[in-house]
């Protein structure tokens, strides 16, 4: 229905204020279908805030957000998810007391039957749906972290931070979103782990038609390797965009990160 | 002997031992005897936990669920039949079952969904008063009255829905506490529902069978009429238990947990927070109300003093003591909380005090409860 | 309703408001510093009152008849013993459970309240019956038409006001108060700055409990009667008042206390049927207020890092 739109996401003049602080200041950004766009900028520049506004956690004070041709500004989080946006969080937010399978299934809400009748009375059909979902989740987990694929019914709390990030990414991907928002997925990882992660994300992207990704990262190697384009934020405004190499040599960007002499 | 048979044997043995304990516990009159029994059992439980036997038992239970559950029900029937002619034991057993039903409802509310409810006794009271009024003034069949007790509780609960949805944590606690006090005060100050003196409740009668008259078999045998109430209590609690189980082992249970654990994440993945809080709150209140309706009919008389804040606290403590979100835990805790004070007559005066101290100790040293909830198993034993 | 009777209600309401405010201040202090609702607060108040009462009995037994000395004695014993109790509770029950789910803490303190209540009921001589509290304040009254102003009301109100002002000064103008506010805002940073976190927590609990004891003695002096369950309702009301005002905010707590008393007064005056409905009315309004402002009238200043 909304396929064929080249532009998947557009921020147009989005502003977000917290009391006196302007976190996003007439922020513009576009993402085309199938692209991987890097969103970079110094700490506090508004990257996570843009995700939060997009996913309906915060209400924008001005501007519009357009997704797949629809104006989704200030839509509730649930509706944004149903439109096809999934995300990870800067501080990995998984339910540590629940199993891996449970956590991934939270991300699959859209495709599961939540009716009381179905879940309480139609147990055979439920079992079928549960087993199918398990297979899907297991496949996904196998891409990112094969040893975990056999431990899907263990509590997330027993795994280390790196594994948990991978589980979180599976949670975001299980619903086959159109847009994936990754918030510093490689934080705390070694170079090898980061490379592995990016490869896995690319593999996953192959399996989901038309998946576009916005990647917030501080690890510039990853950004350079993987993104088609970059957008640089500073103080809530876009100060530069283009391919990584262009952006990295831009004077404004250097000043933003390193300060003015 | 195969592993599976070994498992089943362990589970069945545990159930048999449990039944023997229960019968002995209820039957013993001497205070010394009771204390000795409790002491021995406590030691046995601790020792078996240390030796890993408890773990084996719970594994046995989860891999042979249908058999174990069925056996427990049979065991309860055996215990009931043992005391068939004694009023008091049967009254206690029925009370445990009704409180269990109510607490399973509360468990759905805050064990799974995290919706705090410190006015459980008020909703129980709604069920009671519904039964009182309907039985006195209408000819509605009593089984229907039980259902209506649940419906009434759900309706009254809907008054609280908006505050419950909009508040969180301590604020939500205040709202439900305030409501509980409001409810009790309201009952006491006006006389439409009997005022502080309370109301009489006509006993249950189903298809002409009067629940309040002893059952006579021949010339020799007179069975306590409380058997009837144990029967309906058993049916109610089994239904509540099965419902709880199925809800937990489903996408519904998963959504409820997500709402409790992390609302922001839940929302970001499409879970409708409002819907699930309302569902859990309402469903829980229905169970509480139904239990209340039967309780009223069994007691024959209800008064506002039964539905005070302290009683709501007891309900909440049962859920916490057993282990939040753990139905079997709730079963054990309900049994302990109801039966223990009744049997230790010597300490009747000190009941509340000791009870409060025990709860404090448990919260300090074993906050996860007696039978902590395990990981969700959508189909017990199935791990892909 | 003539002015005199109305005046009566208002004066009574002011008294109640003052007492509720004092209790609410305790709740809000505890919450501010530890994010904890100490539900046994109302019963601590009750224990303090009984402690003061025991002091009175002790002093009388020793033959000390001077009203002033008795008053001071009662207050000192009540406030100090409860300050001590509050600190002990903080040290052994609340601090160890800092990181437990809030429901657990709520329940523990609720149970603690039950323990305190039952302990007094069972172990204080003839505990289950109400006790007459001595008439230690001047019983003069001034009449303005049908409105009678009791001298003791004025004294109590002034006393309560002094305590509130004292707390305000302590919190805002002293180093200890600064430390309390720092801890309330950000535990980690306060610790980094060299503040002894545990000590501040103990002091805060001692302060709140001492203030509650004062409120309890006020209650005793005003109604000339105390009983073992007086803390329960006062605690719930104080809690509601603190919540209305926004947890963590002292002025909110004071506001909430007077607001609740105002609600009760309005309920007693305005409702045509029995004034016994005043509690129903007041609590119903509290619930409605929570719908309108889920985090209290003066909203809690906290934000979640997403």
Secondary structure topology:
The complex is a heterotrimer of chains A (261), B (384) and C (306).
Chain A: E1 7-18, E2 21-32, E3 36-40, H1 47-54, E4 62-67, E5 70-71, H2 77-83, E6 85-87, H3 100-107, H4 116-121, H5 123-144, H6 146-149, H7 161-173, E7 179-183, H8 191-207, E8 212-216, H9 220-226, E9 229-234, E10 237-242, H10 244-248, H11 251-258
Parallel strand pairs in A: 3-8, 3-9, 6-7, 7-8
Antiparallel strand pairs in A: 1-2, 1-4, 4-5, 9-10
Helix pairs in contact in A: 3-7, 5-7
Chain B: H1 3-27, H2 31-50, H3 53-63, H4 65-82, H5 87-112, H6 120-137, H7 142-166, H8 169-189, E1 199-200, E2 205-206, E3 209-210, E4 215-217, E5 221-223, H9 226-248, H10 251-261, H11 263-268, H12 273-299, E6 301-302, H13 309-322, H14 327-343, H15 351-365
Antiparallel strand pairs in B: 1-6, 2-3, 4-5
Helix pairs in contact in B: 1-3, 1-4, 3-4, 5-9, 5-12, 5-13, 5-14, 6-7, 6-12, 7-8, 7-12, 9-12, 10-12, 13-14
Chain C: H1 3-34, H2 41-61, H3 67-94, H4 102-123, E1 131-132, E2 141-144, E3 147-150, H5 151-173, H6 175-185, H7 187-192, H8 197-223, E4 225-226, H9 230-245, H10 250-270, H11 278-292
Antiparallel strand pairs in C: 1-4, 2-3
Helix pairs in contact in C: 1-5, 1-6, 1-8, 1-9, 1-10, 2-3, 2-4, 2-8, 2-9, 3-8, 5-6, 5-8, 6-8, 9-10, 10-11
């Amino acid at each position: 229905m909304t396929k064929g739109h080249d532009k998947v996401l557009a921020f147009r003049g989005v502003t977000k204020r917290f009391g006196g602080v302007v976190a996003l200041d007439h922020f513009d950004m576009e993402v085309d279908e199938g692209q991987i766009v890097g969103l970079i900028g110094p700490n506090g520049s508004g990257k996570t805030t843009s995700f939060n506004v997009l996913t309906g956690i915060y209400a924008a004070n001005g501007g519009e957000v357009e997704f797949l041709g629809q104006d989704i500004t200030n839509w509730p989080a649930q509706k944004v998810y149903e439109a096809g946006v999934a995300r990870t969080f800067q501080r990995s937010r998984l339910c540590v007391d629940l199993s891996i399978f449970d956590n991934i299934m939270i991300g699959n809400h859209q495709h599961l039957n939540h009716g009381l009748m179905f879940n309480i009375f139609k147990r055979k059909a439920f079992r079928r749906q549960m087993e199918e979902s398990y297979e899907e989740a297991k496949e996904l987990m196998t891409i990112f972290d094969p040893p975990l694929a056999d431990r899907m019914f263990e509590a997330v709390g027993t795994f280390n931070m790196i594994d948990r990030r991978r589980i979180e990414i599976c949670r975001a991907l299980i619903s086959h979103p159109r847009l994936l928002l990754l918030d510093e997925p490689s934080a705390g990882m070694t170079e090898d782990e980061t490379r592995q992660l990016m490869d896995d994300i690319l593999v996953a992207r192959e399996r989901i038609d038309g998946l576009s990704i916005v990647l917030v990262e501080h690890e510039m190697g990853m950004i350079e390797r993987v993104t088609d384009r970059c957008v640089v934020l500073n103080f809530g405004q876009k100060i530069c965009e283009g391919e990584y190499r262009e952006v990295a040599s831009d004077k404004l960007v250097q000043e933003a990160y390193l300060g003015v002499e | 002997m195969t592993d599976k048979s070994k498992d089943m044997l362990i589970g069945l043995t545990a159930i048999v031992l449990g039944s023997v304990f229960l019968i002995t516990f209820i039957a013993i009159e001497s205070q010394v005897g009771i204390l000795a029994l409790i002491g021995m059992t406590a030691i046995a439980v601790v020792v078996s936990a240390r030796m890993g036997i408890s773990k084996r038992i719970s594994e046995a239970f989860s891999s042979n669920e249908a058999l174990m559950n069925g056996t427990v029900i049979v065991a309860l029937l055996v215990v009931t039949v043992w005391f068939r002619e004694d009023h008091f034991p049967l009254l206690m057993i029925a009370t445990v079952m009704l409180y269990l039903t109510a607490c399973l409802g509360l468990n759905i509310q805050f064990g799974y969904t995290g919706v705090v409810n410190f006015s459980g006794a008020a909703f129980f009271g709604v069920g009671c008063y519904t039964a009182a009024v309907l039985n006195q003034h209408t000819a509605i069949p009593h089984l229907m009255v039980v259902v209506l007790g649940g419906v009434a509780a759900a309706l009254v609960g809907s008054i609280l829905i908006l505050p419950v949805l909009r508040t969180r944590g301590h604020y939500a606690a205040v709202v439900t506490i305030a409501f509980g006090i409001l409810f009790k005060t309201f009952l006491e100050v006006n006389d439409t529902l009997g005022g502080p003196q309370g109301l009489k409740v006509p006993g249950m009668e189903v298809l002409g069978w009067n629940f309040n008259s002893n059952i006579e078999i021949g010339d020799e045998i007179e069975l306590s009429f409380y058997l009837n109430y144990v029967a309906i209590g058993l049916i109610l609690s089994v239904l509540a238990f099965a419902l709880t189980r199925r809800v937990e082992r489903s996408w519904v249970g998963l959504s409820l947990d997500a709402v409790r654990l992390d609302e922001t994440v839940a929302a970001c993945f499409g879970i409708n927070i409002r819907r699930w809080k309302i569902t859990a709150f309402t469903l829980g209140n229905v169970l509480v109300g139904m239990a209340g309706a039967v309780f009223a009919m069994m007691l024959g008389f209800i008064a506002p003093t039964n539905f005070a804040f302290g009683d709501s606290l007891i309900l909440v403590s049962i859920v916490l003591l057993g282990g939040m979100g753990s139905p079997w835990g709730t079963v054990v805790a309900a049994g302990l909380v109801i039966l223990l004070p009744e049997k230790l007559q010597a300490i009747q005066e000190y009941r509340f005090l000791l009870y409060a101290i025990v709860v404090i100790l448990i919260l300090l040293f074993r906050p996860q409860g007696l039978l902590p909830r395990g990981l969700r198993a959508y189909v017990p034993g199935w791990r892909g | 309703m003539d002015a005199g009777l109305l005046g009566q209600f208002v004066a009574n309401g002011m008294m109640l408001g003052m007492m509720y405010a004092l209790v609410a201040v305790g709740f809000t202090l505890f919450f501010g510093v530890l994010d904890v609702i100490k539900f046994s607060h109302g019963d601590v108040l009750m224990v303090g009152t009984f402690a003061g009462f025991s002091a009175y009995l002790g002093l009388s037994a020793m033959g000390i008849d001077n009203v002033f000395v008795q008053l001071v004695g009662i207050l000192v014993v009540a406030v100090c013993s409860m300050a001590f109790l509050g600190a002990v509770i903080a040290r052994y029950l609340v601090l160890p459970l800092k990181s437990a789910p809030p429901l657990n803490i709520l329940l523990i303190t609720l149970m603690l309240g039950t323990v305190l209540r039952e302990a007094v009921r069972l172990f204080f001589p003839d505990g289950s019956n109400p006790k007459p509290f001595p008439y230690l304040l001047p019983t003069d009254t001034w009449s303005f038409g049908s409105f009678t102003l009791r001298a003791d009301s004025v004294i109590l109100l002034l006393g309560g006001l002094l305590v509130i002002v004292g707390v305000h000064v302590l919190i805002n103008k002293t180093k200890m108060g600064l430390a309390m506010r720092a801890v309330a805002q950000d535990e980690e940073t306060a610790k980094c700055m060299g503040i002894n976190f545990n000590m501040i927590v103990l002091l805060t609990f001692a302060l709140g409990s001492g203030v509650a004891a004062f409120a309890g003695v006020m209650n005793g002096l005003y109604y000339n009667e105390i009983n073992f369950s007086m803390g329960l309702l006062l605690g719930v009301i104080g809690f509601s008042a603190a919540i209305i005002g926004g947890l963590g905010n002292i002025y909110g707590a004071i506001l909430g206390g007077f607001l609740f008393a105002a609600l009760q007064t309005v309920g007693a005056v305005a409702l045509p049927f029995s004034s016994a409905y005043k509690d129903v009315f007041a609590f119903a309004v509290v619930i409605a207020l929570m719908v309108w402002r889920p985090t209290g009238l003066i909203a809690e200043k906290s934000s979640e890092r997403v």
